[in-house]
């Protein structure tokens, strides 16, 4: 006949299994768990992409600002901006809509 565990051993075994399950759950679902780490990595990648787009915009704006500065004036860019912002045309141009 198989030997049965005493009540103390049974309680210890059940508590050990419960503690193990708690730590396994915390390792997966907890604030420092695997799923949170995956979520943070995805957010980090999204933020890096947004940062790169903003950096490209800043670089473009710095270039345009430099080209319209007193030290370096790009007449083609100035002409383009005057046409776009002020709606100016040359006397020899025809506007088609």
From TrEMBL:
Pfam families reported for this sequence: DivIC (PF04977)
Protein name: Septum formation initiator family protein
Naturally occurring in which organism (per UniProt): Paracoccus haeundaensis
InterPro entries hit by this protein: FtsL/DivIC (IPR007060)
The organism's place on the tree of life at top rank: Bacteria
């Amino acid at each position: 006949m198989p030997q049965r565990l005493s009540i103390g051993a049974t309680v210890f075994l059940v508590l050990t299994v419960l503690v193990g399950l708690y730590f396994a759950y915390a390792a997966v679902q907890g604030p420092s768990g695997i799923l949170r780490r995956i979520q943070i990595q995805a957010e980090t990648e999204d933020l890096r992409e947004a940062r790169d787009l903003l950096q490209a915009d800043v670089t473009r704006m710095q270039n345009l600002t430099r080209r319209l500065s007193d030290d370096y004036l790009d007449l083609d860019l100035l002409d383009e901006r005057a046409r776009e912002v002020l709606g100016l045309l040359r006397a020899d141009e025809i506007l088609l809509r």
